[in-house]
Design brief:
Structural class: alpha/beta
Radius of gyration: 24 Å
CATH superfamily of the largest domain: Aldehyde Dehydrogenase, Chain A, domain 1
Strand content: 15-25%
Number of domains: 2
Largest sheet: 7 strands, mixed
Shape: globular
CATH architecture of the largest domain: 3-Layer(aba) Sandwich
Length: about 525
Amino acid sequence: MTELLLNFVAGRWQAGSGAGTPLFDPVLGTELVRVDATGLDLPAAFAFAREQGGAALRALTYRQRASLLAAVVKVLQANRDAYDEIATANSGTVKNDSAVDIDGGIFTLSTYAKLGDSLGDRRFLFDGEAARLGKDPLFQSQHVRVPTRGLALFINAFNFPGWGLWEKAAPALLSGVPVIIKPATATAWLTQRMVRDVVDAGVLPAGALSVICGSSAGLLDQLQAFDVLSFTGSAETAALIRSHPAVAQRSVRVNIEADSLNSALLLPGEDSDSPAFELLVKEVAREMTVKSGQKCTAIRRVLVPEALYAPAAAAISARLAKATVGNPRNEAVRMGALVNRAQLNTVREGLAHLQAQTELLHDGTTHALVDADPAVACCVGPTLLGVRNAAGSDSADRVHDVEVFGPVATLLPYRDLPHALALVRRGQGSLVASLYGSDPAALAAAALELADSHGRVHIISPDVAALQTGHGNVMPQSLHGGPGRAGGGEELGGLRALDFYHRRAAVQASTVVLAALPQD
């Protein structure tokens, strides 16, 4: 039997009592490791994190906790090669795609280490200025933010086992809140290995960081009133979480990132020879192929003026045709596999569902797999769908309702800008929309029109072609999350991320007492 990955809870490594769930190489089909959390003493695990880890972290200042994050960064950098090997084997990603996950996580940690250092040697945060409560200025109200005296439970998706851990854990630990991470089973190996390296290095207080690999059964039952829960995954699971007694009755604070039909919009006034048109084509092709389209922020709908539908279809298809798909160990391959067989079947079913209302512009099945057996490998070529006219963009309701979590996007022609904005809004809330054009005023106006229904509006104009960070790249300085269908959550955004892990209170007192609050 393959190795059974251990869980780290209550300050020690523990094996589950079951046989374990196998994790597979999605290209070769070989079993890699097993995960199991059966029989763990979850009440003890949560109590240890809450009491031991929380107390130790809260005893430190923001600057001291920032130094802990910096120490974690050094540990991860020292073990970087091992993470790459695990990502190749377990996630089936090429090196550049693995870097998005691994290096993205390390960069986020490093960013929060620097942000935390700027907060200085304090253990709470002021929230605005003091406000007078009456005519006499002696009695005033000062709002403060203090770390919640609970823990943070993270239930993550399979597509970012590295970044998904650290983009949540960095602001939590900086806030003084201990973390229990439950990675998605399919790709739990990388998360577990990163936690193992950090634990073995001894850079965090006991109870500050725990990992549970395997089933999530019983985890939500352990949550108490001052804990917080962050979930990334399907809308169906999110609905179950919101109805759980921990949330519905004990008011556990919850952050959810769910489905998202992200859009890329070429504004009117461009032609097929314009730089903006070329930037759209390049970004769409990149977003469809990076991590085989398994990104919550990937472009799913591409909107262009009706007159540019045919040129856009041809240009995007030409780029996609160059994508080499197969075994990520082969240097000629630029796009690896979907995470497992179940996901492959789900993508194929979703693609068939969309094709009932669309035409096939680029057929992913034309991509012969490189160094991979089609009967075994969970690989699928990039597929571009489309509708022929603006009326079709309105009637193809499945395109606006169903997210296929793979290398699939749909090209949608529009009549005018109001029609295009209405089509984007049919996504019912998304993580990100990207805008392409050369008119600064038009781009700015369109961004504000879409801001209420998106967590992020990414504008790519010719002047920032070489500087822009990418439609799908989540930067720690910017907000990640989105309203409506996207889950209604907010993560990152610089120091804004600390809000989720703090409680706000108004201290009403004499100005003499308020002046006694530590200022640094």
